[in-house]
Design goal:
- The complex is a heterodimer of chains A (about 300) and B (about 290).
- Chain A has 10 helices and 9 strands.
- Chain A has about 300 residues and is α+β, with helices and mostly antiparallel strands.
- Chain A has one domain (about 5-295): DD-peptidase/beta-lactamase superfamily (Beta-lactamase, 3-Layer(aba) Sandwich).
- In chain A, the strands form 3 sheets. Chain A has a 5-stranded antiparallel beta sheet with strand order 2-1-9-8-7, sandwiched between helices. Chain A has a two-stranded antiparallel ribbon with strand order 3-6. Chain A has a two-stranded antiparallel ribbon with strand order 4-5.
- The longest helix of chain A is centred in the last third of the chain and has 22 residues, at about 275-295.
- Chain B has 7 helices and 12 strands.
- Chain B has helices at about 5-15, 35-60, 75-90, 105-110, 175-185, 200-210, 255-265, and strands at about 20-25, 30, 65-70, 95-100, 115-120, 130, 135-145, 165, 195, 210-215, 230, 240-245.
- In chain B, the strands form 2 sheets. In chain B, strands 3, 4, 5, 6, 7, 8, 9, 10, 11 and 12 form a 10-stranded mixed beta sheet that branches. In chain B, strands 1-2 form a two-stranded antiparallel sheet.
- In chain B, a hairpin with a 4-residue loop joins strand 1 and strand 2.
- In chain B, helix 3 (about 75-90) crosses helix 7.
- The longest helix of chain B is centred in the N-terminal third of the chain and has 28 residues, at about 35-60.
- Chain B starts with a helix and ends in a 24-residue tail after the last helix.
- The chains are: A alpha+beta (about 300), B alpha/beta (about 290).
- Chains A and B meet through helix 6, helix 7 and strand 7 of A and helix 2, strand 6 and helix 5 of B.
- Chain B: InterPro entries: LysR_HTH_N, LysR_subst-bd, WH-like_DNA-bd_sf, WH_DNA-bd_sf.
Amino acid sequence: MTETKARTRGRVRAAFAEAGVTGWLHAVDIDSGAQLDAGADQPVVTASVHKLCLLVALHQQAEAGRLDLSEQTTCPPRDRTPGPTGLAAMLDDVRLSLRDAAYLMMAVSDNTAADLILERVGLDAVNRTTWRLGLTGTHAVHTFREFLTLLKEDTGPGGPQALTDPRVIAGLRVLDPAATNHSTPRDMTRLLAAIWRDEACAPEHTAAMRRLLGLQVWPHRLASGFPFDDVHVAGKTGSLPTVRNEVGVVEYPDGGRYAVAVFTRASSTAAVLPPADAVIGTAARIAVDALRACRG
Amino acid sequence: MAQPPLSQRIQRLERELGVRLFERTSRQVTITKGGTLLLDEAREILARSEALRATARRIQEGRSGLLRAALPPDLAGDTVAAILAAFQRRNDGVELELHELTTADQLAGLASHDLDVGLIRHPCDVSGLELGPVLRHELGVLLAHDAPAARSEAVPLTALTGYDLILFPRAQAPAVHDDLLTTCARHGYTPTCVRHGQGPSFTRGLLLSSRAIAFSPRDAHPAQDPDLTWRPLAGAPLTLRHSAAWPRGRGDAAALAFADTVTDALAATATAGGDLPPTPLHLRPAAEYWI
C-alpha cells in the first residue's frame, strides 16, 4: 500500500516531536527523482555538513588541474583549529596529502584537516562550487576556525558548561542561518545526487568522494535508521549545541539509492541526547520506505 | 500568443527592479545570481509583511496599547496575583491581555507574533527568542499525609518506588517532561505508571485515592490542605527553570516591563545561586565542536 505524501510527512513530523526536536527533511530517489519534502526549503545552519561542499570544491580543483590530491601538506601542532578528533586532537607535527586530510575531514569531521584544505581551496571556491551546482540557498561565510571562534565568543567565560544555559543558547550567532554557513535540505540532496550521478565531477573524482562519505565512523544518526547488513549508508554529520544534522545516501541491494538530508534543533540543551541523534535515522527511514513503496 | 500570467508577472517585476531574475531558454528556466541575492530579501519581506498584518489588525481593533502576555497554567496563584498587581502599578496605560498557556503553545504564539511576551519553561527550543534571566525552583514531592514516604524530613527519590507519578502532559513541554523522568530514573525512581494531568483537583483526587505522588515547588502546593503533605526531595535533584521570553528584536517597553515584573515575582521564591548547579559537561568526540 502506498502512503500518501501528506501522511508520510505527518509521520516524519511526529517522529521529530517524539524525539523532542524541530526537524526539516528532504529525501529524493536519485534515479526517479521522486521526493519527499518535510520543510525542504528551510534555511538551516550546516555546521560540519559544509565539509561536504568543501570536499566537492577540492575535487573540482583537482580535476581542473589547479592542485594535486597527493600534494603533501604539513600541519604543525601549534595553533590548530580546535576539535575533538583527527589532526585537531593530535599533539605532534603531521605531514599528509590533501586527499588524506580530506579522509580525516569526512570520516571523523576533523576541523583542523578541514581548515588545512580550506586554506588551499579558498572559501570563494567553495561558494563558486555550490553556486554552479545550483545550490542557491547554500553559502559559506566562515572558515571552521572563524566559526568555532564565534561559538567560543558567544559562549562567554563560562566555558562549555554555559552551553546548557538557555540564555546563552538563544544568543549564539552560529545557530542563526542568516549569520553563518547555511544551506537547505533540498540543496544538500541535490549536491548528493550530483555526486552519485557523476555530475559534480568526473567519475574518478565522484567515486573518491563516495568512498570518503562511506568511511564516516559515526553510527548514531542516519545509519541507525537502516540496521541492515546489505544496505549501504554514506553520509556527513554536522553538530552544534542543540543542532544535529546529517546528509547522506542510502543504497539498497536492488539498486535503489536515496539522497536524504535531515537537519534538527533540539529543545534540550544536553550535549548527550541519543534520541535526537537516532531520530535522524528514524525520519530518514520513514521517508526512504515511502519512496521505495512508490517505486512499486 | 498570450504568455501565461506567471511569466508576465515575472517580467513586470524584472522591469520594475531593473534586474534580470531568471535565465530562460526554450527548455529550462534558472534563477540568476542577481535573482538569488534578491530572494533572501524577498523572503524576509514576506515574513515581515505577516508581522505587519498582525500589527495592523491590532491597530484596526483599536488595541495598539495592548500587551499580549502568557503565563504557564500551573504557576502558583499568589505569584500570578503578584505579577498582575506589580505590572498594573508600573504600566498604567497598557492594557494587559493575559493568557494561560503551556510552554509549547507560548512558543507557537511567540513565533507567529500572536503573543508579545511569555514565561517559558526550560529546556525548550529558543530559536528566534530573547530571554530574561533564568530562574530555578527546586521541586519537592506532594503526597497523601499518611503515605509512608511522608514521614521522612527530606524524601529520597528511591523512596518513591511503587508510587505512580502524576505529571503534566508531555506535549506541553516535551523536553522538560523527558528531563524530569530521566533524572528520576537516574536517581532510582522509575514510576510504574505516569498519569498525565495537572489540574489541582484532579491531582488531589489521585494523590488521595491511589498510590500516586506529584512534584511541585514549595510555594505551589496548597499549604492549608490537611490531607496532603509537601516534602523536599533529598539532594534537590529536580528543578523547574523559567525565564521570560519575547521574539528577538521585538522587546518593546511594555514587553520588557512585563518580563522584568515576572522575573522579580519569580525571584522572590527562586532557589538562590544562579541558574545551574556547577556540574561538569563532558563533550564527546561526536559533538564535533570544541571550545
